[in-house]
Amino acid sequence: MTGFAAERAQTSAGELSVSLRSVNHRGLDIHFHGGSEFAVFENEVRSLLKSHIARGHVEVRFSLQRSAAQTPILLNRNILDAYLAIFRQAAKEQRLASEPDLNLLLSLRGVLEDAPAAQRGPDAEFLPELIAVLTGCVVELNRHREREGTELSDEMSREAAEIESAATEIARLRGEILPHFQARIREKLAELLVDAGISESRVLEEAALLADRSDIQEEIVRLGVHVAELKRILAEGGEVGKRLDFLLQEMNREANTTLAKSANAGEAGLGITALGLHIKANIERIREQALNLE
Fold first, then answer.
1. Which distant-in-sequence residues (6+ apart) come within 8 Å of 127 by Cβ?
2. Residue 206: pLDDT above 70?
3. pTM for this one?
4. At what angle do helices 126-194 and 200-214 cross, to 10 degrees?
5. Residue 208: φ, ψ to 5°
6. How far is the C-alpha of 88 from the C-alpha of 90, rounded, in Å?
7. Residue 155 to residues 55, 279, 280: CA-CA distances in angstroms?
8. Structural element, H or E, at residue 11
9. What CA–CA distances, in Å, run from 250 to 35, 95, 217, 223, 280?
10. How far apart (Å, rounded) are the C-alpha atoms in residues 76 and 104?
11. What's residue 158's pLDDT?
């Protein structure tokens, strides 16, 4: 599921900015983007995200803007000494009696510099502040994801309703193809009775077997049960992606069996074939949408 959230807050270490961006992914894939000063907090951040997010490719971005009071300034003595040496050498060569201006020297590039973030290190109270800002960001991200999840769930419910309607129509057409199946059974029986050596029990056995192989009643019933379970899962909510994946496999199996059994069954059979293919398309669309849900 996709989403974006950003939070900004003033902390003991400076102004902290946190952003989260998520896109669809089968599992939870977390990527960190920030300065080296945040690396020490990676385990705590990862643990927090895992407790709130189950699936998705999540990008975490940190930035910290320190104020002047929070940014220690270092004097680079090597560069200062180099500037002084150049100044004195030039004064000697030009035979000038002059002393360097310290204020001017301190304004030269490289003489004063910020302490490296890794050297400064985070303040002791910074971690709980970071977690608090990140928690607010995760909550906002999940609001976006929940809105998208609701839209996806509604769309899958519409697909499920279409499957249910198609299954009802298939059940009606089953009554029309029963005479076709009965005719096929009579033809099979006639072929068997040509051979006088075949017993009556064998003939009845073949007739029952052919009738069972041709009838789609069980597939229609199971498909209806699966659709009811699909609707229940969507209404229940929660982490539904993995549960739906297995259920959709079963629904697809019933659709395939219905198509195979109704082949060559006249006009009614063609109608069932069209409905079965429509059901398979519905299932595939639900499968694609379910990959985005937790």
1. 41, 44
2. no
3. 0.60
4. 150
5. -65, -40
6. 5
7. 20, 15, 16
8. strand 3-11
9. 48, 96, 16, 8, 11
10. 15
11. 94
| Percentage of the chain lying above the pLDDT 70 cut | 80
**Alpha carbon separation from 215 to 96, 186, 205, 211 (Å, rounded):** 112, 15, 16, 6
HSE value, Cβ hemisphere, 13 Å, CA-based, for 152: 22
Angle, to 10 degrees, between the axis of helix 217-236 and the axis of helix 126-194?
Answer: 170
Residue with tokens 């998520």: 22
pLDDT tens by residue, 184-202:
666 766 776 665 555 656 6
Query: Looking at the predicted structure, is the pLDDT value of residue 149 above 90?
Result: no
Token pair listed for 90: 């030039």
Backbone dihedral region for residue 282 (phi beyond 0: left; psi -120 to 50: alpha; all else: beta): alpha
- Using DSSP's 3-state secondary structure scheme, residue 115 falls into coil
pLDDT in tens, 56-99: 899 999 998 876 555 567 788 888 899 899 988 988 888 888 88
Mean pLDDT of 128-136: 94
Q: Residues 112, 71: contact at Cβ < 8 Å?
A: no
Mean pLDDT over 27-47 rounds to: 87
Q: Phi, psi (5° rounding) for residue 214?
A: -90, -25
In this structure, what token pair is assigned to residue 16? Answer: 């902290």
Picking from 18, 33, 20, the residue whose alpha carbon sits closest to that of residue 144 is: 20
**DSSP run (H or E) holding 185:** helix 126-194
Amino acid letter, residue 28: L
Cβ within 8 Å of residue 21, ≥6 positions away:
3, 4, 58, 59, 61
